[in-house]
Amino acid sequence: MDQLRVGIVGCGEVVQIIHLPSLYRLADKFRVTALCDASQVVLDAVGAQWNVSRRYLRYEDLVNDSEVDIVLVANPHVYHAPVTLAAIATGKHVLVEKPAAMNLAECDAVQAAQEQAGVTVQVAYMRRYAPAFEQACVIVSKMRAEGDVRLARVHDVIGHNAQIITPTSRVVRGQDIPQAMLAAGKRSEAEAIARAIGPVPKEVQNAYMLMLGLSSHDLSAMREMLGMPQRVLHATQRGGLYLTATFDYGEFVCQFDTGVDTLPRFDANLEVFGEKKYVRVQYDTPYVLNLPIRLYVGEAHGEHGLVEQMLHPSWGDAFVNEWLALHTNITEQRAPKTSIADYRQDLVLFQAMAKLMA
Asked: By CB atoms within 10 Å of each CB, which of 65, 99, 138, 259 scores lowest?
C-alpha cells in the first residue's frame, strides 16, 4: 500500500510540534492510526486533537496492533531500544528518535533483530535529510577528491528548548505519570549509561547524555560529510553541558564544540575549510517548522576579492524529508542512510570521547 499506517509511542513535544504536523502534510503516504503514552492526559488530548481513537498506555499493546505498519519511537531515551525491539518482533518498521540505543549492547541487539526480521529501522537524524546538507556533502566530496580540505568545525551552542517552544507552540504535558514509573526510568538510565562508559563522575555521565541527545545530530552529520575519523585526539567537558573534541582525519582535523546555556537562540553549523573554498551548513531550531537550513559557499573572486553564495535549495522541513525517505526505503526496500548500523558509529565516538573525559 502507498499509504502506511503509523503508531506513535511517546506523544511529547517533538511529536506534538513536529511529527504529527509533518505526517498531516504527507497524508497521501501516511496515516496515524494509534498512539501510546504513559500519561492518560497527554494521550487523550493528542488523540482528540488529531482524531486518533486507538490509544494505549502500554507500548506492548501498540506494537501488536494489526492497524500499525510503522512505529515511531519517541518516548524517553532509555526506552528507545526496548520499544524498537518489541516493534521489530511483531514485524513492524521503525522510525526511532535519537538516541536509537544507549550503548553498544543495545545497538547490536537492535541491529541483529532488524537484520533477521528484514524490516526497516531508520534513525531520526533529520538534519541529514535537509537539501542544503545533502548539497554540501556533494561539494565537500569533490573538495576531498581534490585534496582541498584543511580544517573542519562542528559547532552547536543553544539555549534550552523551552525558551523557544513556550512562546511559539502549545504542548500538552501530563502530570499524571506515577512517581514509581519515573524513578524506575531514572534507574534504568543510570544502568544503561554505566554499561556504556563504566563508573565515571556524574559530570561525565551528563556529558554522555548530551552526546546521545544534541551531539548525535552534529557528529552524525559530520560522519556523512567527512567519513568516520581515524581517532579522537582529545575530548573535554565542563559541568557536563559544555563539550569539546578534536577528531583526527589524517590530512586535517575536525574541531567540535557544543554547549547549552540560557540564551533563547539556536546556533548550530558545520563548516569545512579548504585553500580554495569554504562550505558552511547553518541550522536553525527544529521546533519552529519550515525554518530554512542554508548552505554558504565562499570562493575567491578575481585576484583580491571574495564571493560568498547563500544557497537555499528548497522550502520545506527536514522532518518531512526524513518521513519521505522512510516511505521510499520501506516501499522500495532500500537501506536507510541513517540505519542502526550507521548509528553504531556514533556510539563508538561517544565512548571514546567519554573515556578521554574521564
From this structure: 138
Residue 2: its pLDDT value, please? 79
pLDDT above 80 for 1:
no
Whether 132 and 103 share a structural domain: no
Q: What is the pLDDT of residues 65-124, one digit of tens each?
A: 999 999 999 999 999 999 999 999 999 999 999 999 999 999 999 999 999 999 999 999
pTM of the entire structure?
A: 0.96
- Closest by CA to 277, choosing from 312, 307, 246, is 307
Last residue in a domain, options 62, 94, 126:
126
Q: Note whether 319 and 98 are within 8 A (CB).
A: no
Residue 323 lies inside a defined structural domain of this protein:
no
Domain count, the chain: 2
Residue 312 structural domain: 127-316+336-357
Report the amino acid identity of residue 313: P
CA 234 vs CA 38, 221, 264, 301, 358: distances in Å: 40, 20, 30, 37, 11
ω into residue 99 within 30 of 0, thus cis? yes
Residue 325: inside a domain, yes or no? no
